[in-house]
Each structure stands twice: as C-alpha cells, then as structure tokens.
Amino acid sequence: MATSSDTVADVTEECETCGRATPHEVAVEILTESPNPENAAYSREPYRVSECRVCGTTETTRMNNA
Q1: What are residue 7's DSSP bridge partners?
Q2: Which residue of 8, 36, 57, 65 has the fewest C-beta atoms within 10 A of its own C-beta?
Q3: Distance between CA 24 and CA 52 in Å, rounded?
Q4: Could you read off the pLDDT of 30-66 as tens digits, one per residue?
Q5: Do 14 and 21 touch, CB atoms closer than 8 A?
Q6: Residues 6+ away with beta carbon under 8 Å from 66
Q7: d(CA 54, CA 63)
Q8: Average of pLDDT values for 24-30?
Q9: CB-side exposure of 61: number of CA atoms within 13 Å?
C-alpha cells in the first residue's frame, strides 16, 4: 500500500526487458511492509520505483536496508 508518491524525474536507465537504455519515470514511494494492520503504522519504508516508459516494466528497490 503506497501512502505517497512524488515523481523525482524522467531519466534514462537500462531496461532489462527492452535490452537497452530507455526513458524511465522515477519516484519515491512510502510502502507498508507489514500485512498485519495493527503494525502497519510501524512498517513503512521508502522505496525507489522506476517504470520504463517504453514497455512498462517496474523495478522497486528498498532505500533503507537497516
């Protein structure tokens, strides 16, 4: 469940699906990791989300690996 999404930039990145560098929409989202609703408020983490503008492939990377 995403609680916020702000587009950071449209950047060129390598896309494994396309096999070449393509434009991507990059955003930072706060995602809830716990499936338990009682702990959801304590399990939100920032993720970098990159979506290829050519094929739509999305890559999500956790930014805080503590």
Answers
A1: 27
A2: 65
A3: 4
A4: 988 888 888 777 888 999 999 999 999 999 999 987 5
A5: yes
A6: none
A7: 25
A8: 93
A9: 7
pLDDT of residue 14: 95
> Nearest to residue 12, comparing CAs of 27, 4, 24?
24
> Residue type for 33, please?
E
CA–CA separation, 4 and 11 (whole Å): 20
Give dist(CA 4, CA 44) in Å, integer.
11
The residue count of the chain comes to 66
Q: CB under 8 Å to 44, separation ≥6 — which residues?
A: 3, 30, 31, 32, 33
